[in-house]
Amino acid sequence: PEGRLSLADPEWSDVHVVTGALKLFFRELPEPLVPYGLFEPFIEAVKLPDPQEQVERVAELVQSLPPPNYATLRYLLAHLCRVMERVDVNRMTRQNIGIVFGPTLLRPEREPGSLATSMTQQNQAVELLLAHFDRIFPA
């Protein structure tokens, strides 16, 4: 049937194709998975000097996400935690995943003056979500 695809097709055997499609899907959403209104609060939380406070604040922000966003973010991050377990094979450290998914999951509504600073903090936010997954997304 038209419009159907099979993940068994050879074109999908390259993990980079699948990852690229996933990133493109999230990047093309009308609003990022972390809604625009929560971008600044997330960045401010990452900037807090106390690591304990960072985690507590991010956990509060995550709890305030709309239910579909929360469920999708939780599912995606759980998967990325499993990807990190295979770091010896895939070289996907927490930092590398932050670089790949930070700007895709969290982005400002308007591009800021300092893109590099903002991007570093987006990456750090994803790293924090991964590092403290169990505390931020209690079972």
TrEMBL record:
Q: Which Pfam families match?
A: RhoGAP
Please list every transmembrane segment annotated in the UniProt record, as residue ranges: none
What range(s) does the Rho-GAP domain occupy? 1-137
| PROSITE patterns cross-referenced by the UniProt entry | RHOGAP
- Name the coiled-coil region(s): none
Cellular component GO terms, alphabetical: cytoplasm
Q: Which GO terms describe its biological process?
A: signal transduction
Q: Which GO terms describe its molecular function?
A: GTPase activator activity
**Keywords tagged on the record:** GTPase activation
Q: Does the keyword Transferase apply?
A: no
The record ties this protein, via Gene3D superfamilies, to:
Rho GTPase activation protein
Protein's UniProt name: RHG15 protein
Q: Say which species the protein is native to.
A: Pluvianellus socialis
Corresponding gene?
A: Arhgap15
